[in-house]
Amino acid sequence: MSLTTFFKGKKILVSDGAWGTEMAKKGLEPGECPELLNADNPGMVREIASSYAEAGADIVITNTFGANPFKLAKFGIENRTEELNEKGVYISVEAVNNKSVIFASIGPTGEFLAPLGLVSEKEMVKAFSRQVRSFVKAGAHGVVVETMTDLGEVICALKAVKENSDLPVICSMTFDKGLKGYATMMGVKPDEAASKLEDAGADGIGSNCGSGIGNMIEVAAIMRPVTDLPLWFKPNAGLPELVDGITVFRETPEHMAKLYPALIDAGANIIGGCCGTTPDHIRLVRKIVDSIK
Fold first, then answer.
1. Are strands 204-208 and 169-173 parallel, antiparallel or unpaired?
2. 223: containing domain
3. Domain total for the chain?
4. Using CB atoms within 10 A of its CB, is residue 105 exposed (0-12), middle (13-18) or buried (19+)?
């Protein structure tokens, strides 16, 4: 299946907003396993997916970001990998009620590939493959590999999707701005990521998390000249700040709405939000996209 199938003649698609910060608002405590909510509190997960569909998102993701065997093993529940991934997809599919398509989320394992770490490429691909097979079984329409910093790990996840499904896959990395420009914490630059991930078979490329929409506009402008693939961007609602022990994000829906047209002009094709963004943010993004002729 091609990613362009979902555009249906549209230039821009709207993705959803944050999941982690929305779950925290609803009672998820720091240090708890978010993916366990798929089994223990599916109603909470369903509310988040439904809220984004109602806000007008064309694409809604799943609560499976950390549901890889490596991360689940830290909670002693690696044996529930398939269960939690399947339930995560089922919940989002049911919640959107055909208003949106579902892209299942794959996040970092928290491990390093050899020789920097102890995990082999084969082991990494095997871990991600368990997620992908569960996504297919539960009826996902696509996959987003997100918040990645290591190009090798992204390519392992991409390989797992291609070997175990015909689902389109978007690869999204997190870039920070330093003295030498934008790069992930592992030193991967935006243009390098775009070029190498296209060569590796990604159907879409982009960036999420890390920073606010202003920086995302600059990252999009770096990526667009080196690829013709659809570009996906989900900026945070600004940088996180700790206020009275609570993490807050200060970029309001109205503030971000003023900058989304510039993100589109820089080459973005799929736009939404990451940490700190809400259904209210996505509602305004929907209005902006609908106003584009």
1. parallel
2. 3-291
3. 1
4. buried
